[in-house]
Amino acid sequence: MFEIRKSAILAATLAAFAGGIAIPAQAQQGYGYRSSPTLLVTPEGDILDYVPEAGEVIVSRDRNGRRILIDHFGNLVATEIPAESYFPRQRQASIPSVYEDDYRQQSRGWEDDVVTGTIPDPDPIERRPLSGLDSNMPYGGPDLPPQPETTPQQIVTPDIPVKSDLSRLEIVALQVFLDRQGISPGVIDGKIGQNVNKAIVAWEQMTGETLDPNNAEDILQRLRLSGGLAITNYTITAGDAAGPFVASIPDDYGQKAQLPAMSFTSTAEMLAEKFHMDERFLRELNPGVDFTIPGTIIKVADPGPIKKGKVARIVADKGLKQVFAYGEDGALIAAYPASIGSADTPSPSGTVTIERIALNPGYTYNPKINFKQGNNDRVLSIPPGPNGPVGTVWLALSKPTYGIHGTPEPSKIGRTQSHGCIRLTNWDATELAKMVTPGVTVEFID
Question: What is the DSSP-derived secondary structure letter of residue 116?
């Protein structure tokens, strides 16, 4: 990696980069960017506090026509964007854990260690690797032709995949913004997919506004107003590194039953869930980092505080694979991608109610009620934990053995089917659980 002098920058360098628009050196130092119309942002989401000298970088354009700096190894150094569209907050992020216990006594019907009677689909699914620099990374390299500064507004519908020219970092910004609004995009991974697509539509239904997935400046402005930058620094604590963890989670339910708890397998897995991220994306954002060392500063998504409200009615849309939570006034409060039933093991039809809410639930495997796995022909008690079959939350429905619950594999939500239950990410299930009470109706629609 080349060496960059972190000193005052010559005007000739600025002109070479900005195409004649001089950016004062102080605009990139100490966050004093208010005096400049533009600023430089690193791939990690930080404001670059210096400008590289001429000859140390290649000046190019990304697919949106914005000026970018690339080093001589092909690595992105920074992107020039309007200062007013990327206004960072002036505080250290304080992001709550998804496993806060302060609400356990807030409503009747909450129970711990409740035995459930259904199970998510155990079949494995191949995960697609994160894209590289030459495929779906935010910047295509020096030879990428300039694109128009503006693109036509795209109308998003639930059944038509989003076609977006956003960079990888801008997609993260979109996902974080939606998550902060209570409209979950599923895992934050910097990828446009059906979960993001459905979230955009739900947000538009909730607000009555239009969100263009190609308008980066609008997305970044909305992100700023919702709480600041999408990516923030987080210092790994001794508690984070301490666990408890287990070495691995076996597939066999007989072996699962022998574990002391269905705990996380690593600090990275725990942190990814804490910040609503795909674990692979967390590792990609922090290359070479040892997550087991307390005091290590890492880059994480900032999904903000959980959504608050009182949910009076839930709609589980089987076709969309999405759950909608409505308030007493009929307004949409939150929406979540979900895995809901299958042709062989369909979800209930009609309307049921939530009977009880259980945190940290255990699970009873019964081959006479559930599927038959391998040679397991007897009833097994699976201990609780985030990697348990129903995750960290169980909302029992009035139809026996069915419920709304979490999952140990958040990246599969919305992409796979369940054995009849409504499966959400652990953090979405936790958020929903904090807004419901026993008696709330759950309507299944096709």
Answer: B
